[in-house]
Amino acid sequence: MRTLRRRDGLTQKELGSALGESQQNIVNLENGTVKQPRYLIRLASYFNVTVDQLYSGDIDAPQASVDRQKTIERMLDLDDDKYQLIADMIDLAHSKCD
User: Fold this and answer.
1) Distance from CA of residue 68 to its chain's centroid?
2) Nearest to residue 30, comparing CAs of 51, 3, 61, 48?
3) Cys-Cys crosslink for 50: which of 29, 55, 69, 90, Cβ 3.0 to 4.6 Å?
4) Is 29:1 a contact under the CB 8 Å cutoff?
5) Which homologous superfamily is 2-56 in?
6) What does the alpha-carbon distance between residue 82 and residue 43 come to, in Å, rounded to a whole number?
7) What is the pLDDT of residues 46-96, one digit of tens each?
8) HEC profile for the chain?
């Protein structure tokens, strides 16, 4: 994450403010004190990378992979009815392709 922050020319304080977190939370994350922050998905979204990329440090992954991961992360925020609607649509699309 430090690499991404520096790439974008942000201080720890600026990144914390953008995420609604304290500078100390960003320091702790960069130092490895915090392994799975509650704001991990927001952090990945802010830098336009996947959560996996944040952990692996592989920020040069293909955009299609990033887009898929973001779609999955967005689905996790849906209520049960909307999630089921999306799942049904995926099933229908797969049945049309067979």
Assistant:
1) 11
2) 3
3) 69
4) yes
5) lambda repressor-like DNA-binding domains (1.10.260.40)
6) 24
7) 888 888 887 777 776 555 556 666 777 777 778 888 888 888 888 888 888
8) CHHHHHHCCCCHHHHHHHHCCCHHHHHHHHHCCCCCCCCHHHHHHHHCCCHHHHHHCCCCCCHHHHHHHHHHHHHHCCCHHHHHHHHHHHHHHHHHHC
Domain range annotation of the chain: 2-56, 63-97
pTM: 0.57
Q: How far is CA 92 from the centre of its chain?
A: 27
End-to-end CA distance of the chain: 41
